[in-house]
Amino acid sequence: MPCSPEVLRSVPLFALLDDDEMGVLAAHVEMRTFSPRQRIYKIGDRGERAYVVVSGGVRVTAIDQDNQEVVLDEPRHGEFFGFASMLEETPHQTAAEAIDEAVCVEVDRSDIEALLQRKPLAGMDMLAVLSSTRRTSSCGCVPRATRTT
Q1: pLDDT in tens, 10-66
Q2: For 113-132, what is the mean pLDDT?
Q3: Domain-by-domain residue ranges, the chain?
Q4: Based on CB atoms within 10 Å of each CB, which residue in 34, 70, 117, 136 is the most buried?
């Protein structure tokens, strides 16, 4: 299902994009609905896609040294997960599952590439958001909306 620019405006990572940039990105990303307990991806899956939660909740987990599942994050509205693997083109090191019905924006690397090809300055806007997030997290104050897996 297509995504509207209004949905993307609620995502901190895209907050600095102008209307044209938001329109380009919205034309490329998709909306996905996951049922309660539906797996979004598992550890080892190709990191082709990342997700932004629009509604509902997601649980992101990993397996520790004792082979126990550990909850790393539970992203909610406007928060994202899976971006590191998608950008680095590496397998997911985590698993993600819908807690309840979850509606997410699905973003793949080609969506970001299309945005940057048509609107190169959009990359600077997203880097500015990530940079301010990094400064905040380096003091130990990690806003939930900026954690990735």
Answers
A1: 888 888 889 999 999 999 999 999 999 999 999 999 999 999 999 999 999 999 999
A2: 84
A3: 31-111
A4: 34
Count of C-beta atoms within a 10 Å radius of residue 4: 11
Q: How many CA atoms lie within 13 A of 131 on its CB side?
A: 7
* CATH code of the region 31-111: 2.60.120.10
- Tokens representing 138 are 């380096």
Kindly state the DSSP code that residue 41 receives in the 8-state scheme: E
Measure the CA–CA gap between 134 and 128, rounded to whole angstroms.
Answer: 10
**What is the spatial distance between Cα 3 and Cα 104, in angstroms, rounded to a whole number?**
10
Sheet holding 102-108, edge to edge: 30-34, 102-108, 49-55, 80-81
The 10s digit of each residue's pLDDT in 78-88 is 888 998 899 89
What distance in Å separates the CA atoms of residue 59 and residue 127, rounded to the nearest whole number?
26
